[in-house]
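INFO  loader      accepted 1 record
INFO  loader      residues=399
INFO  predictor   begin
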Amino acid sequence: QKIKNLKPQDKSVEYFSSTQQKGDGSFGIRVSPKGKKTWFIMYKLHGKISRYTLGTFPELSLIQAKNKHSEVALRIRNGEDPHIQKQAYQKANTVAEFWDIYSKWERNPNKPKSAKSRYDEQNKWKLHIEPVIGHMKVVDVTSDHIELCTQNLVSKGQLVTANRVHALLSIMFTCAMKKKIVKAHPVLSMDKPGGSEAPRAIILKDTEIRLVWTACDKLAPNMRDIFRLILLTGQRPGEIMAMTWDEISLERRFWTIPADKTKTGRADHVVPLSDQAMAIIEARYDEEQRFVFPAHSKPGHVVNTAKARLRLHKLTNTEGWTAHDLRRTARSLMALSGTKPHIAEKVLNHAVGRIEQTYDLYDYLDEKRLALDKLGREIDKIIGNESKPAKVVKLRRQE
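INFO  predictor   done
INFO  writer      dumping tokens
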């Protein structure tokens, strides 16, 4: 009440507290001629007397001002100048500014992130992180702010995505720690917001494959062909969506995925194209387009199958599977058709072992082609497209 009743004078007047211990500096409030009341601490450091503003009344109450004075006094006793710290804070990176630094950082320089990984990270940043904490100073981010980035995803039941955003934030602050931008890691003590994830092992049954394949006809052409090519080639959905015409050899019937577009990033990956895959790709040929699956509303290619997949769930009453599960299903069908495990792994471009020798670009090409041809025939058999053997008619030679 005493603070509230302080009246302005013709010039600024300062009032000091007499309860401070020696070495804690002088705690006071200054009342300007216009009535503005400003809390401050007057201190001596390195032989120089300085004044540091703590805040204004009533925004900062007496109790809050005293607590802040105690914090600043402690830093002064430790030889830290609050003015220098304030200047450093003003220059400190926002999370958005730090994102530019993080984007150029490699956690493991010997294994740079693939273009797909960078693309996925950029999506998570734009959708779930930047809108929430992009404006904040990195040093101000706490575990509560980290939780804000994922709580909307958790409330919608998107638990896996919430875990992925959480993981990206963890890596970001590991980078900030290594670059000495922050002293504490706000993510390390937190649990995954989506909980632990059980290993996925969804493989579609023949009846489900048939339903999904048929229902694809009710989707837009891009989505229809993407889902079918995942099944026919066993490749990653993101790699198929980013397919370009200069990666396709229609004459030699194969698709070469550049190393920087693969998840492993080790080397280019050659995918032989079966008759069934070729039929889909040839029907899409457009010499004026760069991408096989161009986006319609903006430059570039299709980047997401989620809405179309959810529609397939409803059309077929087969819920729970993802686009990646179609790739897993293709792997299962290859095994069913007699493809050896190490060849199937080559087709899927899985890393085998921790250290793998670099082979010729066309290594195992014949084996991979045979595996994918068998896969195409197996899918034809499942969906009822299996060609019937031609009827042989003996011709009688005329005399």
